[in-house]
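Morning. Coffee machine broken again, so started the prediction first thing and wrote up yesterday's gels while waiting. Chain of 182 residues, entered below exactly as on the submission form.
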Amino acid sequence: MSNVPSITDVDVAGKTVLVRADLNVPMDNGRVTDTVRIDRFAPTATYLADKGARVVIISHFGRPNGARTPAMSLEPIAKALAESLGRDVRFVEECVGEVAEKAVWAMKDGDIVMLENLRFHAAETENSDTFAQRLGVFSDIYVNDAFSCTHRAHASTYAIAKILPSYAGLSLKAELDALDAV
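Came back before lunch.
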């Protein structure tokens, strides 16, 4: 598994990088109560931004079954990630469509945005190629840093990897290297 290409193997400067993270973290009344997954992901976001990429983070939270559920918004998670990183993370209230596209097109090198919960769209869990194309329309590279979600055939973990050049994030690469050592 060590032969899986990593973000350290590609020049990301000036590129828009779509990053699948697992930020399905415990929350209570709209507040993140455990930041372990956020803190594990932070080095990947930092690495990409510091290398001059435009970092577009996608993730899920809970199981909203394809319905927009305000209690399952990623907005509080974006705030917690910004605190962990010590830098701005702009939250975008959509993950596909015009609102998301405009936000991404407005990014500068080194910026970080987090798009809204993927699972607000049933097409995510249906592994829709069309949904994956909508996710990837503004990206040059796809990075998977969601080890705990990698086994799922979802649009953001499987279909998207058929569309964009794909790499492992730092956390996923560390997990794969650990498996190699077994």
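The helical segments are 36-50, 75-85, 98-105, 122-125, 129-136, 155-159, 170-180. Going to sketch it on the whiteboard this afternoon.
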